[in-house]
Amino acid sequence: MKSISRRALVLYLIIILFLAGSGLLFFNLITHSEEWAMNKANKHLYTSGSLTTAGDILDINGKVLVTTKDGSRSYNEDKSIRLGTLHTVGDSSGYIASGVQTAFKDEITGYSLKDGVYNLQRYGKGNDITLTLNAEICKVAYNALGNYKGTVGVMNYKTGELICVVSTPTFDVYNKPKDINTDTSGKYEGIYMNRFFSGLYTPGSTFKIITAACAIENIPDIYEKEFVCKGKIQVGEGYVICSGTHGKINFEEALNNSCNCAFAKIAETLGNDALTKTAERIGFNSSGLVISNKINCSKSKLDLSDAKLLDLGWAGIGQYTTLINPCQMLTAISSIANNGMAVSPYLVSQIQSPDGKVILNGETQQLGQYFAEMNATKLNNLLRSNVKNRYGDNLFPSMEMCGKTGTAEISDSEDAKPNGLFVGYSQRDDMPFAIIVIVENTNSSMSSAVPIASKVMKAIKTEYIK
Amino acid sequence: MLKKTKNVNLYIMLFIITLFQLVCLFSLLFKAKSEHKLGIFISFVLYILVEYLYFIGARLILQRKGFEVELIAFLLTSIGLTITASVYPEATIKQFVAVVIGIVGFVVLQWFMRELKPCIALRIPVAVLAIGLMAFAVVFAKYTNGARNWIYIGGVSVQPSELVKVAFVFVGAASLEKLQSNKSLTKFIIFAFACVGALFLMHDFGTALIFFFTFVVISFMRSGDVRTILIVCTVALMGGLLILLFRPYVANRFAAYGHVWEYFDTSGYQQTRTMIYSASGGLFGVGIGNGHLREIFASTEDLVFGVVCEEFGMIMAGAILLSYVALLVYSIRHAKYARSTFYAISACGASALMLFQAALNVFGVNDILPLTGVTLPFVSRGGSSIICCWMLLAFIKAVDRSTYRYGGVRQ
Amino acid sequence: MDNLEFIMRYILCFLAIAVILNCVLSLIRLRPEKKTYALLVDVTNDEQFPINCYETSVGRSKSCDIVFSNMTVSRSHAVIALRKDGFYIFDTESKTGVFVNGEQINKSQKIFNGDILAFGTAVLKFYIGSEADDDISHKKDAPIARATLTNLADNNVFKLEGDYVTIGRKRGSNIEISAPYVSREHAELTLQKNRWIIENFSSVTATTLNGEIIYSPTPLENGDVIEIGDFAFRYEENR
Questions:
Q1: On chain C, which terminus has fewer CB atoms closer than 10 Å, C or N?
Q2: Which of A388, A413, A297 is nearest to A347 (CA)?
């Protein structure tokens, strides 16, 4: 029997192959389990591609943004809230990838490797997610944006809670436009994208804050310097054009007037390396922010490696190839308000399992000291003087508002309108909110972005200061 | 200090298995429609009864020890029966009857193999019968789901290829008159090619593959003649390639292999759904009757592994895979001390067949191997399949010399 | 019910795992016990070859269970097989044939304890193992119902009775052999532990068992041939 038993040993090879296959099988199953279980064909969660059973999404005040009712997802009755929170909450079909409903699929369906989707079976719903969002503020921001494409983001600069995230164009989940995928006019351009998290914009003059910060850090006598603006200035082989003719001005006036000549000159003095260094410290060129561990933001870019002197001049006033992510920019502005310390923005305040256990609590996380405290104070004063001397405190009554507008040229063609931007924050301790408003295709930031910011901040004031 | 391993305690295991079956029955009855409740209840109670009859009979009357092999088979069968009763409650009784036939076949075949002589004597008749059955199937079988391997006799559909599997192992192993000498495999090769060829004519490529694999295992065990086997494999491979060349629709069947997600709603439908729902089950499953994979075609046959993953959980699915491995290890371990090369070869052939079939089934639906549409031994629904598995189990049981008494004394 | 189902999932899994893991571990860890059923002893050098399997192959090839590197032995020469009723030897188409007690066998033959097996020039004596748990030796321990010695010359049957039987020239011996070369008390058969044992007392003429001279008390097996000079007896027993 020796020969037989020896030949039988060869069968162990088959066993090894089988075990290897089984190992691969379970490795695949376990590593892909979430991805596979969240597939739209999974009838535990979806009916013809729409999420049907899952947990609720609530705003910070407990207002239900979406819930499951009678076997389908039911959204807030208020149309403006529905439209304003669409991109943050997400749609049932998962077109909006950064929507909480899609990005937090596992949590909202209560999926776990241990029990699979059993919780849905047991409770008829998954985990409930409470957002840091305030639906009323979102509604105001959405209404203020009107027909503009753009985004409004408001965050608490001390804690990082995002209380308002609105992106337009948007649509009503209950009445989705039929031509949404066929339209060629561009009215639905980027409709599935949350511009606040995923958008990239030319910063325009708002970038001057960063150039100014870099100047404060690197040019000791910057406040003593005097700049001459004649409407344009030669930098390298070309000219940087200014919005006006500001004459002799100092550093603070240059920022108040958003003088391109002055800032092009400052950028020229600073050089590529210093500017890049400051920008990279506040998050440019590194991987984008991650909101609540799930939602990835696009990364802001400042690439001066091939920049000639003229390019550097343009970059100093937020043109050239510079691109900012709205969320990233808001974080940077917030850090100025928060004595230079940047906190990570977050969207999920709490996740609660169906049996009432709190699975996750949103927490404030520090990202690092973006600006030295002393420099942050200087920047703060400059931004405050912008609002006080330039835009007017009547737009932001008793808010001790700081801010900077920007008008970003996005195309050389004549009929293309620029984007209007506003970044700012209130200095009041009882209203520690920073705001970014970006409006696409507008005449000027003063006529579009600033009034929107004003409306939203006023609403916040009413809401938070009783 | 090394402790001598003992056989599992039959009574404890029997108790646990009964509990398992009762919990399954309870779940089933709770969810079943009232018109099916009686059938399910009767089937399960009778199944448990048969189980007790077998074990008590074997333990007390035949005074056997060592029941691991049957315990595993009884457990797997009850999982299969539960899934059948849950998905197709009206087919429960039919499936139960098939299980009983299988168990009877298992007992009878075991009894028949107590002596070597009749096995050897029956070799040729069984081979002729098997080829006859295959030929009959080629001519008369009806096309079902692309493969033509079902014949209908008086309202009952039979899959002859499943029954021929048993005959194939039997004939292949019964080579005793040449006793361990390296003798030619010619006759067996002819027999094997007749069977595999018939399956190709029936378009049942999965089963053809199983037969071919079993053929390789058995002929290697018999002769150790690697050269002949290599030649046969090469010829088979070339034949396979020729078929793919001249019959491109055969190749199309396997087109989705490796990227089923790209064929999400077409030829990768079954695989992707299996993976989605397997993942949905998690480690402990969503509970009997709560799955959605059951709604998909062939869920209780080809996709049954996915149903187990979804409703019983991945842990149980992993344990099922391990049990096929254990059966083969057991056969290999006992091959040396088997009562004859016939028992050694037939046990290794039968257990390798089951393992290979399980591999084709499980890896097929999970896109690790191409999907061939074979059943999962003991678990899949299907009368012929379950009968075949139980009868193959008799070969595995017979390899252990302690199964039989000699001269009134247990070995 | 929801809670019950929730718990039942775990219970089901636990029960199935308990059974499958127990059985699988047992199947993987349990090895069949090794037993020695018989023994082959090389007559030239007393080398022992235990027979542990139901089928034991003999040959020159290394894959055989018992290997002789003797050129007169075929690569695969013979197989000794244990069947329900005892041991058989099969000639597996060897070139030089298989000889049992000097006679070439045709295909297969039943063999008994003490048989001399020859494969080419390799000559071995076959002993059926004496381990108590062995099925065949176990049978040996059963009481002997009837034991006989048959005179091979005239087929006279002598029944062995009582506890001992004497063989010799002396009058009153149970088996009286009146030949000059047979001692007065030549040999004695005694029943010990259900076995008949033969012992030689003669210093003149050898007593042989299956052709082997016996020097010490030797148990008899069914079919053994006892020779004293020209007289030969076959021992047969029923249990």
A1: N
A2: A297
Do C51 and C80 meet the contact criterion of CB atoms below 8 Å apart? Answer: yes
Minimal-distance CA residue of chain A relative to B281:
A116
Q: Are A309 and A235 in contact (CB under 8 A)?
A: yes
Name the CATH superfamily for A48-131: Penicillin-binding protein 2a (Domain 2) (3.90.1310.10)
Q: Please tell me the distance from the alpha carbon of residue C62 to that of residue C81, in angstroms, as a whole number.
A: 19
Q: Strands, E, within C68-136: which ranges?
A: 78-83, 86-91, 98-100, 103-104, 108-111, 116-119, 122-128
Cβ(A12)–Cβ(B332) below 8 Å: yes
User: What is the per-residue pLDDT for A245?
Assistant: 85
Q: What is the CATH number of domain A202-324?
A: 3.40.710.10
Closest by CA position to C8, among listed B44, B20, B82, A120: B20
**What's the CA dihedral at A47, A50, A54, A55 to 10 degrees?**
-150
A121 inside 8 A of chain B by CB: yes
Confidence of residue B13 (pLDDT cuts 50, 70, 90): very high
pLDDT value at residue B324: 95
CB contact under 8 A, C54 and B338: yes
Residue extents of the structural domains in chain A: 48-131, 202-324
Beta bridge partners of C125: C41, C116
B touches which chains (3+ CB pairs under 8 A)?
Answer: A, C
Please check the confidence at residue B223 and state whether its pLDDT lies above 90: no
Q: Is the pTM of this model over 0.80?
A: no
Nearest chain C CA: its distance from A125 CA (Å): 14
Say which amino acid occupies A367. Answer: L
Mean pLDDT of chain C: 82
| A128 Cβ neighbours under 8 A, 6+ residues apart | A55, A56, A57, A58, A351, A352, A354
Task: Provide φ and ψ at C145, rounded to 5°.
Answer: -75, -45
Instruction: Over range A150-168, report the average pLDDT.
Output: 91
Cβ-proximal residues to B163 (8 Å cutoff; 6+ apart), any chain: B133, B384, B387, B388
What confidence score (pLDDT) does residue B154 get?
65
pLDDT tier at C61, thresholds 50, 70, 90: confident
Beta carbons of A435 and A424 less than 8 angstroms apart = yes
What are B85's two structure tokens?
């009763």
Structure tokens, C113: 């304890």
| Residue contact C135–B407, C-beta within 8 A | yes
The pair phi, psi for residue A456, each rounded to 5°, is -65, -45
Kindly report the length of chain A.
466
pLDDT on residue A72: 82
Span C132-153, mean pLDDT?
63
How far CA A50 is from CA of A256, A315, B263, B294, B295, in Å, comes to: 50, 45, 21, 21, 19
Residues of C in contact with A118 (CB under 8 A): 6, 9
CA distance C63 to chain A (A): 5
User: If pLDDT is split at 50, 70 and 90, which confidence band does B206 have?
Assistant: confident
> Which residue of chain C comes nearest to A4, CA vs CA?
C63
pLDDT digits (tens, 9 = 90+) for A202-253: 888 889 899 999 999 888 888 888 888 888 888 888 888 888 888 888 888 8
Cα–Cα nearest to A442, from A406, A413, A418, A463: A418
Q: What is the mean pLDDT of chain B?
A: 87
pLDDT, mean of residues C181-195: 83
Phi then psi dihedrals of residue A443, to 5 deg: -80, -50
Tell me how far apart the alpha carbons of residues C195 and C142 are, in angstroms, rounded to a whole number: 9
Tokens encoding B381? 């629904």
Closest to B134 in 3D by CA, of B113, B159, B116: B159
Q: How far apart are CA A297 and CA A280, in angstroms?
A: 16
pLDDT in tens, B142-162: 666 655 566 777 667 788 888
